[in-house]
Amino acid sequence: MPLIDLSSPVDATFWEPDPVVHQAMTPAEGARHMSAEMREHLGLEFDPAVLPGGEFLNNDTFTLTTHTGTHVDAPSHYGSKAAYGTPRTIDQMPLDWFYRPGVLLDLRDAETGAVGADVIERALAEIDYRPEPLDIVLLNTGATRHLGTPKYFSDFVGLDASAVHLLLDLGVRVIGTDAFSLDAPFGNIIERYNATGDPGVLWPAHMVGREREYCQIERLGNLDALPRPFGFQVMCFPVKLVNAGAGWARAVALVE
């Protein structure tokens, strides 16, 4: 069964609002580090020079947010309170939400901003498919063409509240996008709010999560590689970060 990687990389060379810091430890440094840790924590003396080549194991330290790279947002990310009760953190989410049939919707022709339920309805009609409960819906916005650049955070399309409600009404509980956010870009949101004074334009996709429990997968990649809009499985298990509002995920499609 072919596997298709649907994840975007975590790369310290990419432009990020919160830069990724990558500190690499060489195998020789790893040997000396291990010796020092054994002395401090276990009271053991060990000369790393006796190791072949004076090397042991390398190690890497990454400093990054939970929203860097492909990740799953938990309900607790959307606010501290919800209409349905206390929002769950990422370690509390049911695993069976994240291994389900996938549905791919093409939004690449949409302009920067937020699309509504009418656009989602047209996209579903184009592929002649109606999501089943717990299907994972993936949005191909074309945002990955700007990956690693500032435009990745400013030029993409998101969903408004009506679009999210439509998918949740169909039983969807996980919505994914290749963009930085399931909402419109920050600049677009603030511009529309300043023009209208309407608080309903302020991150509506995320705000729906205060009314109804669901998860977002943001910053997916390689959606163009999917051979068809449905008839595949998606696995996107989030890392079990206790009490966190999001967890990184290696999203993969299984195509029969």
Automatic annotation (TrEMBL):
An individual GO BP term: L-tryptophan catabolic process to kynurenine
Domain of life: Bacteria
GO molecular function, one term: arylformamidase activity
Ranges that cross the membrane: none
Alphabetized InterPro entries for the sequence: KFase/CYL, KFase_sf
PANTHER family attached to this UniProt entry: CYCLASE-LIKE PROTEIN 2
The protein's name in its UniProt record: Cyclase family protein
